[in-house]
Design brief:
The chain is built from four helices and four strands. By secondary structure, the protein is of the alpha+beta class. A four-stranded mixed sheet has the order 2-1-3-4, covered by helices on one side.
Length: 118
């Protein structure tokens, strides 16, 4: 009986490990919880996340935290909010340091998604 359970768990582990998710384009937002424009962007980013769930990865870093400050330094952020659009190979293809509305963000993401299908 123990042998059967072990084999079953092994099969579940192997199958689970073999289902690696393909890389996706990423929208990286560097913001601050104390920034008024960042607060205005929050519901916009939430709508975009919902719209592109499963197609785009989203990373949001708050510069008021240690991890967020490290990411801001890594990406040489000078102004917040900053949106960085990254293709599935990890290359930055667009950066914005101003407030974008949902339609603008969608247009940028849609263009990249179409380019990656070619």
């Amino acid at each position: 009986m123990k042998k059967i359970i072990f084999i079953a768990l092994f099969i579940i582990f192997v199958v689970g490990c073999s289902k690696k998710e393909a890389p996706k384009p990423t929208l990286l937002e560097i913001m601050s919880s104390s920034c008024s424009m960042c607060k205005e962007m929050k519901p916009i980013i939430a709508k975009v996340q919902e719209k592109y769930e499963g197609m785009i990865s989203f990373l949001i870093y708050d510069t008021d935290t240690t991890a967020g400050a490290e990411q801001a330094n890594l990406y040489a952020i000078k102004k917040i909010p900053t949106l960085i659009f990254i293709d599935k190979q990890g290359n930055e293809y667009f950066r914005s340091t101003s407030k974008l509305n949902e339609d603008m963000i969608s247009a940028i993401l849609n263009t990249q998604l179409k380019n990656e299908k070619k």
